[in-house]
Amino acid sequence: MIKLLVLELLSQRPMSGYEMKQILENTDAKRWSGVLPGSIYNAIKKLEKEGYIIISSIEMTGNRQRSEYKITQKGQDYQLSLIKDALSSPIQYNGDLYSGIGFAYQLDNQSAISILKNNMSTLNTEKREIIAGKKQKEIATNGELSELSSIVINHMIKTIELQSQLIESVIGVINKENNSD
């Protein structure tokens, strides 16, 4: 994913690694793509070595050198290949949560409920942060957040809401078991 993000940024315009890192941090890439912005430098080195990007200019700032990169034709072709791969990725389920729910009967009910409520709290925080991030992106793009970006962000919010509903249902079943004892 990091290679795709670097190539996408460079397909817009040449830029330095620092600029790309800032963009990824400002767009909350860690949350929606699982990419740590700091990993961009390793990806840049690999992409350059493989001929997908090249240095387009070098500036000296004090004792530091700032390289600006641009995408090559080979990089553009590779980017399209990565996009196709990403679009064809399979559905992923939260196997850890599902397994935990399946084996929750081995815990005492209060422990299970406490853990699930903590999970629910984490989901609520995540939802608030995604909504705040969406607002930041809208500000950064002068209100011109792409329709595709909006679809993805809204899907993330709906996924969190569905997971919250699942947890609420599980808590309801556990509470029902408590009342029947």
TrEMBL record:
Q: Which Gene3D superfamilies match?
A: Winged helix-like DNA-binding domain superfamily/Winged helix DNA-binding domain (1.10.10.10)
Top-rank taxon of the source lineage equals: Bacteria
Location of the Transcription regulator PadR N-terminal domain = 6-77
Q: Which SUPFAM superfamilies match?
A: Winged helix' DNA-binding domain
- InterPro entries, sorted: Metal_resp_DNA-bind_regulator, Tscrpt_reg_PadR_N, WH-like_DNA-bd_sf, WH_DNA-bd_sf
Protein's name in the database? Transcriptional regulator
Q: Which organism is it from?
A: Lysinibacillus macroides
